[in-house]
Amino acid sequence: MLRLATQSNNIKTYVDRLKSKSEKSLKWTLLNAKYSVKDFPRMTFNELNDLTLGTFQLKQAKKYAVEHLSNNGSFNIKIAKQRDDLIRAQILSRHKSATLYDVWVQYNKNEILGWYCRCPNGCRVVGCCSHIASVIWFLSFARYHPEALRESASSYLNSITDAPPGYDI
């Protein structure tokens, strides 16, 4: 962990080189993550907790992932044609309206190698932001456990009990 704290974010460096054109630009293919990227490592909830360094990101990851699902249930990501170890997604901010954050995740079949997000907290290498966590959570866990994507009944109860006074239920 301490070793990671002193490292720079290699994915950010790579993305910056792509942006500055010093690196050959990548061609991206849009895919439904539910049925693709079969070599993305499966992870347990505890492994995800260790990777993200806490439950906050994982709780937010579920919310972001559910919002990212399209009406037909697809979770859209992009895969680099020239690099099969790099995926990209655009995750809508829950705090800034109409703001999309670009997320990149590098992986192999055994582990997550790195990540980067263009949000204010997306460059860290120890733990990750909720946008990154949502992509990793969906690909490594939720698509194998569809029940994890369902809203709990208590969330609906909270919306009813928080209804304004005088609202006819």
Automatic annotation (TrEMBL):
The SWIM-type domain is annotated at: 101-140
Q: What's one GO MF term for it? A: zinc ion binding
Q: Does the keyword Zinc apply?
A: yes
* Assigned keywords, A-Z: Metal-binding, Zinc, Zinc-finger
> Any idea what this protein is called?
SWIM-type domain-containing protein
Highest taxon of source = Eukaryota
> Which InterPro entries does the UniProt record give?
Znf_SWIM
